[in-house]
């Protein structure tokens, strides 16, 4: 058989030294040219091309499984920094490379009709099976990601008095900082510093570090665009018009939060001081975008097991939230996830979450419910109330969703 070797292969060989992929590559058509929607610097462009090739090699579609991640080329996202402490008091086990779906954003937005249709279908499967996926070729530059991460890191190391005014803030206050935060849940100590800022419709931002406002403005705008495009594609994957979910939840005036999490080492001490990051929970919003500082620790629940999420270089993780579960009448679930930390290095994660407009009453779209109302899973709840409820209580799996769940009478008629 004669195979044509695409010129980009040598680039791929140089960067990855993975001969076996070269062989596979020769048997499949090269990936469509990658032109991310936003501007990208040249190293990001090379990375995007490699990732796109990788997609082509692994599955020949826009979605593939991350069972064989590309080794780190930039030293940042090496994903091998992980030493799991003992699990919390559940029965979950931790997997390694467990086939987390990967979505090529460029195909979703710019692909030819047939590629797009396939990508939408694959996206739907990722939402339904996992509620969690990675997105590549997303157009948000590494430079911007580094800038927001570094600036938040600076904030965490400011003296306490610089942050004092935000330390006592309540769940609906637009800027909240929790620092040196240690809570004990079921005998496990969870430690995390966090910064939470409302980013849209209006950006609220601590005065220091001085550059935070500009960086956060740019980062929130870029990631909001990305998440809103994903919302459109998710709407289509549910068999709805692209704008349907957006209309149902008022995403035109969506609410957005940026969260920086910092999990400081070392995690030492007695049995009650096993360092954990964040207890299992689902997110109260609609869709969450997350990247980390090269230190693993995010785990997602899938098929009754905890799976360690190892990112492809440059990829974002996407986490489906409770509002997607409600609006889709439970077809797509808000995925349970947690952060487990235990290595020598501090872990940081950066979250950008979009949610319905605060005053939107979110309920299942009628198209996804039988006309007689049979199978209706959720009642309408104002998002502001939902968020306040979830944020005011201890993080406890998916318990918050119960306030929206339709309670069925399972007792049957009383005996006479
Ligand atoms: O740090 C992580 O990886 C998880 C963070 C998270 O789940 C959250 O902030 O809601
Ligand atoms: Fe979360």
Could you describe the 3D structure shown?
With 416 residues, the chain is an alpha+beta fold. It has eleven helices and 17 strands. Strands 1, 3, 4, 5, 6, 7, 8, 10, 13 and 15 form a ten-stranded mixed β-sheet that branches. It is globular and about 60 Å long. It starts with 7 loop residues before the first helix and ends in a 24-residue tail after the last helix. Mean pLDDT is 77; it is low at 1-96. Residues 259, 261, 277-278, 283, 290, 297-298, 337, 339, 349, 351 line the site of 2-oxoglutaric acid. This is Fe2OG dioxygenase domain-containing protein. It comes from Urochloa decumbens. Keywords: Iron, Metal-binding, Oxidoreductase. Residues 73-92 are annotated as: Disordered. One of its GO terms (molecular function) is oxidoreductase activity.
Give the topology, please.
Blueprint: H1 8-16, H2 19-27, H3 42-58, E1 63-65, E2 94-95, E3 101-104, H4 105-110, H5 113-129, E4 132-136, H6 142-156, H7 160-167, E5 175-185, E6 188-200, H8 212-237, H9 244-249, E7 255-263, E8 275-276, E9 278-281, E10 287-292, E11 298-302, E12 305-308, E13 316-320, H10 322-327, E14 337-339, E15 347-355, E16 361-362, E17 381-382, H11 383-392
Helix pairs in contact: 5-8, 6-8
Bound molecules: 2-oxoglutaric acid (AKG) and fe (ii) ion.
């Amino acid at each position: 058989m004669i195979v044509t070797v695409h010129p980009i292969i040598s680039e791929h060989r140089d960067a990855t030294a993975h001969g076996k992929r070269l062989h596979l590559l020769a048997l499949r058509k090269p990936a469509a040219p990658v032109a991310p929607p936003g501007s990208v610097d040249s190293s990001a462009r090379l990375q995007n091309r490699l990732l796109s090739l990788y997609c082509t090699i692994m599955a020949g579609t826009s979605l593939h499984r991350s069972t064989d991640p590309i080794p780190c080329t930039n030293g940042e996202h090496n994903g091998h920094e992980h030493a799991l402490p003992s699990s919390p008091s559940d029965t979950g086990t931790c997997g390694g490379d467990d086939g987390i779906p990967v979505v090529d954003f460029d195909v979703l937005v710019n692909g030819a009709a047939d590629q797009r249709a396939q990508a939408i279908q694959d996206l739907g499967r990722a939402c339904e099976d996992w509620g969690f996926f990675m997105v590549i070729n997303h157009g948000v530059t590494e430079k911007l990601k580094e800038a927001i991460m570094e600036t938040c890191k600076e904030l965490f190391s400011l003296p306490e008095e610089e942050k004092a005014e935000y330390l006592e803030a309540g769940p609906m206050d637009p800027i909240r900082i929790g620092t040196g935060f240690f809570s004990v849940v079921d005998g496990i100590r969870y430690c995390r510093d966090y910064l939470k800022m409302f980013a849209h419709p209006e950006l609220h931002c601590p005065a220091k570090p001085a550059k935070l406002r500009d960086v956060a403005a740019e980062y929130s705008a870029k990631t909001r665009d990305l998440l809103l495009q994903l919302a459109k594609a998710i709407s289509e994957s549910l068999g709805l018009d692209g704008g349907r979910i957006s209309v149902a939840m008022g995403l035109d005036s969506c609410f957005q939060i940026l969260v920086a999490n910092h999990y400081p080492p070392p995690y030492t001490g007695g049995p009650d001081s096993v360092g954990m990051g964040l207890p299992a929970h689902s997110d109260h919003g609609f869709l969450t975008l997350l990247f980390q500082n090269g230190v693993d620790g995010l785990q997602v629940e899938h098929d009754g097991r905890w799976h360690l999420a190892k990112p492809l270089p440059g990829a974002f993780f996407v986490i489906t939230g409770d509002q997607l579960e409600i609006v889709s009448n439970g077809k797509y679930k808000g995925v349970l996830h947690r952060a487990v930390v235990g290595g020598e290095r501090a872990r940081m994660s950066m979250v950008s979450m979009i949610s319905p407009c605060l005053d939107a009453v979110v309920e299942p779209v009628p198209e996804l419910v039988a006309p007689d109302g049979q199978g209706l899973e959720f009642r309408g709840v104002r998002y502001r109330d939902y968020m306040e409820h979830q944020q005011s209580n201890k993080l406890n799996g998916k318990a918050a969703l119960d306030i929206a769940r339709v309670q069925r009478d399972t007792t049957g008629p009383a005996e006479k």
